[in-house]
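Sequence and structure are no longer studied apart. To make this concrete, we show below a single chain and its fold as tokens.
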Amino acid sequence: MPDLATFAVDDGFSYAVPEGMSPTVGSIVRVPLGGRRVRGWVTGLRDGDAKDLKALVGVSGARPTFTGELLSTLRWAAVHYVSPLAPLLVKAGPPNLPKVGRVKLQTVEENAREASSRVNKISQSIAAGTRPPLTFLSGSGPWLDDVAAIVQAATVTGRSSMIVVPTAADCHRYADALERRFGNRVVAGTSSAAAADRTRAWSQAAGSPGTVVVGTPEVALWPVADLAVVVVIEEGRRSMKSRQTPTLHVRELLRRRAAVERFGLVFAGHVPTLELFASGVHYSGGETRSWPLVEVIDRTQEPPSSGLIAQGTRAAISGAIARHDSAFVFVSRRGYAPATRCTSCGDLRRCPHCGSNPGRGSACERCGHANGPCSSCRGVAFAPVGAAVGRVIEELKRTHGSSVSAVGDGGLVQVGTERDIPPPGTVALAVVIDADSMLLRPHYRAEEDTLRVVARVASSVRRGRGHRGVVQTRMPEHRVVAALRHGNGEEIAAEWLTERERDQLPPFGEIVAIEMANAPEQADADLRAALGSEVAVFGPADAAGRIRWLVQAPDLRRHKIQLRKKVQAWRDRGATVRVDSDPLDV
């Protein structure tokens, strides 16, 4: 298959293999195409008459970049994410040409550490050469001890393991900890590393059974020699899904790979996504609570004119500063929070039709229902609930002075957003300023996302007297706030699943978002004609200079195949098209 990002070459081309050349499935080759020579991959070999075929020009690199089993997953991903196959084949390989050779790996002591009870069955299955059950390890993290025990079981049998983490910082943290135990068996893979380092790590993983691969989402498509188990840390984090086309999600890719390649798959986190929960995953809790205690500050008991920071929150921050303890203050976004409250009675503004935050315009951003006065007191003046990081810092500095700063600027009290949440067990106080603005966001994942993010913030608190997490809210009876108090997400997840099944939303249905710039005049009509009447198509709507549609149905596989043809036709006519399967925001 030529390395061209177009659906037109997905079926590949046939070439003759010259005498003395011996490519295999996954080999990088040079092929003639349209009067030029381009890079390509071998996706199949067959016997037959080759007299009318053009010949391969050469084989590049000494190692195939994917196996037949991995190719099966890549073909599935091409359909599921409405992507040409070639960009996915690129992701399976290293930046530079791979080299052949096995690394001499350091010896690991067989009984170096006793496995914890909740990973005992996983370790025993791996040691016996069988596939362990799909498992979710809940807890406040970090999950290093559990991960090390699982890796230990794989390495003592000479098999490989993989740990996929959300960010480069997480990668370095896990890789450093595991390297102290497993030495040169551990290789790290992140997009921020130099090309030579990534190629070296990829080559060891592909050629040396017993390697421990630690990396960010891109390693999920690496071929790994004799892979026994993959552990995914916090699969619900947004960084686990690519924003660029193809919009791959680590969870779905690895579930497919595990089914084809028969390796074990273990997830660890605070709360599993509903997609994982619905898959029948075995839920293994290490403690009664999946995150530390959370103190809820009810802001309905304060006057409507009160500022961003509750008195109880200010007192908690003052106490942390007096003890010279570190604190983290979480703000849900860098711009103004979307939720607003009535300045007369203090109640949060909600759409009377769908119950979400209606936005600041004349109609609800989610359902289009006309916005009116406050449903409680008929007031017409509303103020934002939350604010930008800068405004929160300014307000806190009025009472706490130079102890307050943005993350990275050295203050005892640091203010940041989701990307700044500290690692588990590293601060004495964690505060969530505006949980309500997250709960009222106008998309169906708002509650699930809020629980997961606030659980992460709470888990950043280390054990110790006086250490705690604080959440400010004007909805103290909300079911997500109740789950935060209880420290467990199983019960509320069951409620969400019932609602999702009723509405045919993921994981009981599929959604695809399509965004287009320079759209042809008939794009809307063409899309509806291609998908048919049994599919719900919402739009087109304006999306930052582009037009956007949402496509929904219980099963979209057949329609995605039709959509591939239509997307290529639009692109051939000059349109820029982005297709997002399973979008996080709708």
Observations:
- The chain has four domains: 7-67+83-91, 117-285, 294-339+385-487, 510-581.
- Residues 117-285 form a domain with the Rossmann fold fold (CATH 3.40.50.300).
